[in-house]
Design brief:
It is built from 21 helices and no strands. The protein is mainly alpha-helical. About 50% of the residues are buried.
Length: about 375
């Protein structure tokens, strides 16, 4: 009987506590959203599965010398994984729409308002006693407004690793919900006539422009905001491999094999931070609410900037493309295009929206560098 009792007490069922059971259900829900609803499945699925492993009692895979703990220490604590993902994003990015209409950089910049508004909001709520976020934690939460997963993970790993799990879930969940969150905001801020505005055809962008742009972008940004150099450096390096045309094998590897491998390892490492004692805390609710506020504010700021630019521009600008400035590539651009089609079935906004979409990626990386400098 002693042996049977010892065997029973060693099982996960005997050791299972209510918080762990709740986290197992949350992770199963995330798996459902990834598989059934296709909410950012490439990262949400490994994150959720890593969370399952991290919350099974008696399984030390996410602690001590466990493999998930080692993945976290090697790839996230050092920020290597997010930087490699950013290199892959650069290799997949076409700067052509942005270079064809450089004014759209203003839309990408405007959408970053959500980040800094959320930073101030998080600090204000902490002063009021509703939450207890430090400056570093508030900065890590605010970057969710950029709707850029790798940037959110990078900043969280640098400034607030204890919040990494909640920030990752919030960032990728809101990115997946772009088609649901952005349309009501864009419709509320624009008229049917504005949504039906047709934009003029984009000019052809020469190859030399595409080669020089990542180099100039890196040098100018790094000189002004050195803390943004790691993110933008990897992003621009990936893009230069793509546009140079002389390292196609490296570019193809970066776009496919490397990104896929790192995505798997990154997701599992993030999942290791979904342990019940780290995720089921009051700050998680604050992160989810502030992340939604950041995302909504960034969307609204981009649309309002689009309206302002259209008023003073010689060539018409559809304000909907300003919503794409939040960086969720290419979902935000597709959402803006779909809203334009609703107002005018022959209106084609996709390539125009890709300009602020790419500018949003650059803007969120620069914002991350500024936040690192402010919160350091």
């Amino acid at each position: 009987m002693e042996q049977w009792r010892s065997l029973w007490e060693s099982t996960g069922l005997y050791q299972l506590e209510l918080p762990q059971a709740a986290m197992l259900l949350i992770c199963l829900l995330l798996l459902y959203l990834a598989i059934r609803k296709k909410f950012e499945p490439l990262l949400l699925l490994p994150i959720a599965f890593g969370g399952l492993l991290a919350n099974i009692p008696g399984v030390e895979i996410a602690t001590g010398d466990g493999v998930l703990r080692q993945l976290y220490e090697i790839g996230l604590a050092t920020s290597i994984f997010p930087l490699l993902i950013f290199m892959g994003v650069g290799a997949l990015t076409d700067f052509g729409p942005l270079l064809a209409n450089p004014r759209t950089m203003l839309l990408g910049a405007a959408a970053q308002v959500g980040i800094f508004a959320t930073l101030l909001g998080a600090l204000l709520l902490s002063d009021l006693g509703w939450f207890d976020f430090s400056l570093q934690q508030a900065a890590a939460i605010a970057i969710i407004g950029g709707a850029d997963g790798p940037t959110s993970l990078y900043l969280a790993s640098v400034l607030a690793p204890e919040l990494l799990g909640a920030i990752a879930v919030a960032a990728y969940s809101y990115m997946a919900l772009v088609p649901l969150i952005q349309p009501p905001i864009a419709r509320a801020l624009t008229s049917p006539r504005e949504r039906a505005i047709r934009m003029s055809e984009q000019r052809h962008v020469r190859r030399i422009e595409k080669i020089l742009f990542p180099l100039l972008l890196l040098l100018l940004t790094a000189l002004l905001v050195p803390a943004a150099a790691p993110l933008l450096g990897m992003f621009c390096f990936g893009n230069l491999m793509r546009e140079s045309g002389v390292v196609k094998r490296l570019s193809d590897t970066t776009q496919n094999a490397l990104v896929n491998i790192v995505t798997i390892l990154l997701g599992l490492a993030v999942g290791s931070r979904l342990a019940a004692d780290q995720f089921l805390v009051s700050s998680t609710l604050g992160i989810l609410l502030l992340g939604l506020f950041a995302f909504a504010t960034g969307t609204a700021a981009g649309v309002l900037m689009g309206k302002l630019m259209n008023r003073f521009s010689r060539n018409p600008i559809n304000p909907l493309i300003g919503a794409a400035g939040v960086s969720a590539v290419p979902m935000a651009a597709r959402t803006a295009h779909r809203l334009g089609e609703e107002a005018d079935a022959e209106n084609f906004l996709l390539m125009h929206a890709m300009g602020p979409n790419v500018a949003g990626v650059i803007g969120s990386a620069i914002a991350a560098g500024i936040l690192i400098r402010l919160a350091a």
